[in-house]
Amino acid sequence: MGNILQLLAALFVFVLVLVATYYVTKWIAKTGALQPYTRNIQVIETYKVAPNKYIQLIRIGEKYYSIGVTKDNITFLSEVEETQLNLDPIKETVPVDSFKEVWNRVSKTIKDKQKKQ
Fold it and tell me: How many angstroms separate the CA atoms of 81 and 59, rounded?
C-alpha cells in the first residue's frame, strides 16, 4: 500500500511541475520577461520566407529598416520610410469556437455520414 501512495505522490508532483511549467512559459512569452526592455530598438513585424529565413521590419530610433534574418546571418535590405508603412494594430478576425461547438459539428458530420451509408 505504501508503494502505491508513493507512486501516486510522484505522479501528482510530476503533473504539478508540468502544469506550472506550461503556465510559466506562457507568462514569459506574453510579457517578454527574458528580453530586456529597450526604448530605441523594436521588431515591428516578421515575415517567414522559408524555414529559418525571415524578413523583419525593425525600428531603431525614429527610422525603420528591413533586414533578412537566417540561422547564421543578418542582412541589411533597405531603409523604409514611415509613410510607406501601415502601423495600425491588426484586428483579430479569426472566430474562436469553443470545444463544445467544434465537437457538435464533428459529431453531426459523423452522424450524417453514417445515415447515408
Answer: 11
The answer to whether 62 and 55 have CB atoms below 8 angstroms apart is: no
- For the stretch 63-116, pLDDT in tens is 999 999 999 999 999 999 988 888 887 776 666 778 888 888 888 888 888 887
* Cell numbers found for residue 73: 546571418
C-alpha span between 7 and 9 (Å, rounded): 5
Name which of 66, 26, 74 is nearest 47 in CA terms. 66
Question: Quick one: which of 74, 75, 78, 54 has its CA closest to 66?
Answer: 78
The arrangement of strands across the sheet holding 63-70 comes to 41-50, 53-60, 63-70, 74-80
pTM of the model: 0.49
